[in-house]
Amino acid sequence: MSAAPVRGPDGVIIAAAGVVEDITGLRAQEAEQQRLREEERLAKAAAKAQADFIANMNHELRTPGGVFAFEGMSSVAWLSVKSIPAYSPRNTRALRATDAVHLSG
Fold first, then answer.
1. What is the phi/psi pair of residue 18, to 5°?
2. Is it the case that residue 105 has pLDDT exceeding 80?
3. How far is Cα 97 from Cα 103, in angstroms, rounded to an integer?
4. Which residues contact 5 (CB under 8 A, 6 or more apart)?
5. Which residues are CB-neighbours of 81 under 8 A, at least 6 positions away?
6. What letters, b where the CB count within 10 A reaches 16 and e where it falls short, cover 12-41?
7. pLDDT tens string 43-65
8. Domain range annotation of the chain
9. What element of type H or E holds 7?
10. H helices within the chain, ranges in order?
11. Listed residue (14, 17, 34, 38) closest to 26, CA to CA
12. Which residue from 38, 46, 95, 105 has the least number of CB within 10 angstroms?
């Protein structure tokens, strides 16, 4: 809202003129833009984390120490999956995946 005095010929205020504008739509648009900026920031952070992970795994798998570390971690994963109760629905998928890595060598 904005207002301004209306003065007569003698300089005395005789009225007030004002404008009232509904900015509800503008506020909603600003909130949506903020939400989209936050989603974009999170997506970029996730993409960077993924790229960093792949780069690190690529490096680790290409070095002798990395292969041994991967083998050790796969054994840890395999043992932890073995400790999940057999009736767990995720046990079947996890067991298949870790068995494939563990039993391959």
1. -145, 165
2. no
3. 10
4. 13, 15, 16, 17
5. 91, 94, 95, 98
6. eeeeeeeeeeeeeeeeeeeeeeeeeeeeee
7. 999 999 998 888 887 877 777 66
8. 19-62, 64-105
9. strand 2-7
10. 24-62, 64-82, 89-103
11. 34
12. 105
